[in-house]
TrEMBL record:
Keywords: Signal. Residues 1-31 form the signal peptide. PANTHER family: ARABINOSE-BINDING PROTEIN-RELATED, SUGAR-BINDING LIPOPROTEIN. This is Extracellular solute-binding protein.
Amino acid sequence: MKRTALRTAAAIGTVAVLAAGLAACSSGGQAASDQKVTITVGDRPTKDQKAALAQYNADIAAFEKANPNITLQPKTVTWDATTFDAQLAGGSLPDVLSVAFTEAKSLIANKQAADLTDTLKSTGVGKIMGASTKKLVSDDNGHVYAVPTTAYSIGLVYNRDLFTKAGLDPDKPPTTWDEVRTDAKKIKDATGVSGYAQFASQNQGGWMFTAMSYSYGGRVESENGKKAVFDNAKSEEALKTVNEMKFQDGSVAPNSLYTQDTLYKDFAAGKVAMMPAAPDAYNTAVQNDGMDPKSFGVGGMPMGPGSSKDQGTLTGGSIQMVSPKVDDAQKTAAVKWIAFHYLRQYQSKSAAVTVAKATAASGNPVGVPALSVVNSSTYDQYNTWIKDEINVPQENFAAYVKTQSSIPIIPEPSNDAQEVYAALDTVMQAALTEKSFDPAAELSKAKTAVDAKLTR
C-alpha cells in the first residue's frame, strides 16, 4: 500500500556523506573460504536517480573490497507481481531481490525462495532478526525464507494539543475503539474540531478497512488467498463503529474521500484530532505540511472489544528473497550482501552515526520509531548509537513503542491486495456517507466482486 516515504531530499542530502564515510565501513566480513563466488543483486537505481545510484554503487564497491572472493553483478530489476513468475521460470531474476511482505507466504508455498535457515545461523544474521517479522517469512516448521529489511505497523496518530484542550491526557491515547469513540466526541464537543477521520479512497479506504478489521479480529482473505473472508461479524463491527461515530456522535470529519495526502494536510492544520496511520506520518505532517512537532503523537492500534488471539495490527514493508536456484556459497554471499546493504546501521556504530548525522544535517527527521526488523536489544543499541542526532520528540511516540511487543502484527492480504482494497473503498465510503448503512449488505456485494478477482 502507499506509504509515507523518506523524502528525496533526505537521500540527496546524505548520499555524499554516505558514499565517502560508509564506503570504508565493512560489516560483511570475509567469505567463508577461498572459493570465488558471483551473484546477481537487484534493485539497482536507474541513472536518473543519481543520489540513490551513487550510494548503491558505493555499497557495491565497499562490499567487494571487504569480501574479495565475492563478485556482485547489479541489475536494475525490481519486483513486479505481474511478471515475477515468468521471470523466475526464465531465469532472468537476480539472485537477491526486494519484494513486498505480502508475497512471503506464497513464495514459501510455491518454493520460489531459498531456505535461508542454516545460512542465517552461520553468518550470524539470524541472531539479530526480530521475532515478529521473522515469523512472517518462516514456514510452519520454523524454516526462514527471506530477510525483512523494512517494516511498518499501523497505530493511532493524534494531535496532542487537541487532547489537552479537550481535557484528555496527551500521554495516554485511546487503546480501544470504544475509547477512540469516546475521546473523539469529547474533542468535537470541547473544540469544535473533528475528533476522527481516516483514508477512504484511492485504495486507501480498503487498506484502512483491513487495518480496522484486523484490530477487531477479522480477516480479509483466506490463508491461501483464494477467497474473500471479510464478510464477517468482526468486520461489520468495525464499520458500524465508524458509521455511528459519523452519524450518531457527529465526531468524524465530513470529508468521506480522504487519501493520505489530503488527510495529512488537514491533520497537520489541526482540523482532525485522530487517524489510523503509521508513525512515519510524522515525516509528512511535520516536514511537508508544517505541523508543530510537539503536537504530533502516536499510540498503538486500538483494539476492538474483547480479547482474541486473532486481534492485531496491519503490517507491511520489504523483504529480501534469495533465488532457490543458488548454491550454498552463493546463498552465503547473498545473505552477507543483504546484511551489509540493508542492515549494517544496526551492526556498525560508525554506519549508524554517519547516516543519522547526514540525515539530520539535511533537515530531515531522525529517530521516528518504526516496527523494528531486528531484535529489541539490537534496536535499543542502535538508538543508543544515534541518540545525539535524534531530532524528534521521542516522548510523543512512547505509547506506540510500548505496544510493539504486545500487539500482534498481521501482513496485508497476499493475493491482489490492491484490487481488494479498491473494492473495499466503496464499503468504507458507504460507512462514511450513508446514515442507514448496512455493513453486511455492503460487505456481501464487495465479496462477490473480490472473489471473482481472486479465483480468475
